[in-house]
Amino acid sequence: MSQPQLFSARYLTTPDGAELWCQIEGEGEHAVVLADGLGCDGFIWKYLEPHLAQRYRVVRFHYRGHGKSGLPRDPTRLSVPLFADDLAQILDELDVSRAAVFGHSMGVQVILEFHRRHPERVAALVPVCGSYGNVLDTWHDDTVLKRAFPILREVVERFPNLVKSVWTKILPTEMSIFIGRHFESQAEFLRREDFWPYFRHLGEMDPVAFVRTLEVASKHSAWEHMPEIDVPTLIIAGEKDRFTPVWLSERMHVHIPGSQLVIVPNASHCAPLEMPALVELASEQFLARTFAAPALTRRA
Q1: Whole-structure pTM over 0.85, yes or no?
Q2: What is the span of the domain harbouring residue 96?
């Protein structure tokens, strides 16, 4: 695989004072954005990002309170529309006028909202293992987390220092990785070294920012906007996804005009890590059609 010849990372200060981290990698006429899920700092794009950077300018960024971006000055202002507007400012900073926008998990809500608020910036949409909204209603096809969430949020916000001390000790451990690999993903396809960065980042994240971001994701929905989507759309789903069950992707496929649906066999919420070659192939073929570009170099 050839190496991208351009890499630039920087910080952007928003009008309300938030410090947002972003980067652009690769060269090419067309751009691709990769939007993370809740509590993530890009681990899910480990294989797809360098693959796409062979031909496209690939943009990554961290939400407020995630990764290298700073904590929000006013946590009560967090919202999915705010994340979408942050992305628009980041594209301005990186001199990207229009892009194909990928989103994983909560990132699906962000990119759907981005199309609603900034349709002129969207060349195509690629929702990956996510939902159009109200994620606590469908997690594991149950409402148990939705019912428990008010108690969880109150504990975190009343005792943030105590929760942080426990949080940082429990999450980045072998036990957490074992539980995640064997109960929330497909352990036989997901390597430990690919999953570890998620728990490392989550252990470093402020728990108040985490629960408040989860709350805004649980209240946001782009359901009514899906029929208005007028750009090429590729929906990628994991057949055995428990976080965002596959029927959510099937429903998006029905309600987004002209969309395509790819269900990755035996894959979970981490399909881009478990079955990278399949996700790469589906993505590159879709982008080649969207941008009328040649196919990329295949992985060995």
Answers
A1: yes
A2: 7-134+220-291
